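User: I'm putting together a small comparison set for a docking exercise, and I want a reference complex before I start. The sequence is below, and the ligand is zinc ion. Could you produce the 3D structure with the ligand included, as structure tokens?
Assistant: Of course. I'll restate your input first, then give the structure tokens for the complex.
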Amino acid sequence: MSVSPTPAQAETRDRVIIFDTTMRDGEQSPGASMSLEEKLELAKILEEMKVDVIEAGFPIASNGDFEAVRQIAEIVTESTVCGLARAGLADIDRCGEAVRKARRGRIHTFISTSPVHMKWKLQMEPEQVLEMVTKSVTHARNLCGDVEWSAEDATRTERDFLLRCIEAAIKAGASTINLPDTVGYSYPSEYADMFRDVIENVPGADGVIFSTHCHNDLGLAVANSVAGVQGGARQIECAINGIGERAGNAALEEIVMALKVRGDKLPFETGVETQHITRASRYVSAITGFPVQFNKAIVGKNAFAHESGIHQDGMLKNAETYEIMKPEDVGQVESNLVMGKHSGRHAFREKLKALGYELGQNALNEAFQRFKDLADKKKHVFDDDIVALVDDALASGADRIQVRSLRVIAGTEGPQEAFLTVAIDGEDKSANATGDGPVDAVFNAIHAAVPHEAILRLFQVHAVTEGTDAQAQVSVRLEEDGRIATGQAADTDTLTASAKAYVNALNNLQARKEKSAPGAKVASGF
Ligand code: KIV
Ligand code: ZN
């Protein structure tokens, strides 16, 4: 069971700042882009979860990123809202502007310090890089009281040079120093030693917070992050479900639970309210279209499942035989049977609250109507069904294009054909098309009704619960001109869910086009 610290242990526990970079480094995973609305919703979930710092984007990268950071800075009041900037003054200005209205804002600026990055990526001499450190941090401090500086590729940086850069950043006013394992190359004891060395030898180190930022190329990101804390770091940068560049970042849920469950050996605490973890994980998976592997620690479908007879027997006698934490600690509630079609709005709202949703009146009405429709079609409505339908309603509520009706001819006797009606800004448009299978026919019919150039990059179907009447949850990812948008939908009819998910992705793509200025995202350079 999760070990609660004794009062004496609690007093001596050091607080570790949890810095979430799902919307910045996480969004840099190929294909994991999120819409503005999705980012705003995720920011609310992270704040409710009591994440200390939310890195909301990279404002110079695109108008969409800038807008996301700016709007998140306006709505988030408890967590610090941070934007990323390279060392150039224009990057920092743009970032400063994006976080200007935040109650607690932070500029996070970085430059590469390793020989290989300086030579090949920056094409700069070490002394020039050192000068940039002072310049960039000084400039950022003139715009914002809270400045974090990162030495990109710190773990492959020559130690003496790293110490000089950190000293310069501290002198220029950085209050957090992040030492990333950018390429996921380090191993735990080595990473811990780097922090010990730096903290012991850099003048002014005792006045700043040191931070970890670990990539998972060797599968060591979480272990390295925890080791970094043992070496003296007091901030961990991580992402929900471990998403991020290449093999990803350290997974937030794993780090938080490792510190919580192993409090006996790791005398640290975070402020994260862990019962929100499952919801955050599901939401990130839904909006990115990245499934969570079944055996993923903490949030995988099987993380608390006990299949073998011996294990089940032990569990029945005492859950501590095979469980080191309770599923409820991370918000994994049993998929309970809920109200049927006769259940009232009040009971539905209470159920939503228990699942972590506080909806406004309009969203509640919309979700309640969907619940009633589902209860008409499906014998048992489980908690997971409700989560899927609410996420679906939140995702598609403001869509300009909506699926009105769909009829599909499928089966062994081809051709498969789809008859579709969509409403575009309230006006109905119908089309039919054949295809190589029913899904292809549906997507072709959408193409005929809403001509577009986007290319289908991902089509993915999951059953929300068990049984043949389970809702299908579909994710679709589309790409056009380098812009990527993901759509999702759930329905007991897999083809209807597919049509709705495709249309949702088209809407998100359109919204993205309208919001971003001409020109693709700038290369982030990392
Ligand atoms: O991996 C990395 O080095 C980064 C920095 C920009 C913090 O993401
Ligand atoms: Zn990174």
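The radius of gyration is 24 Å. The pocket of zinc ion (ligand 2) is lined by residues 25, 180, 182, 213, 215, 244-245 (CB under 6 Å).
User: Thanks, that's exactly what I needed.
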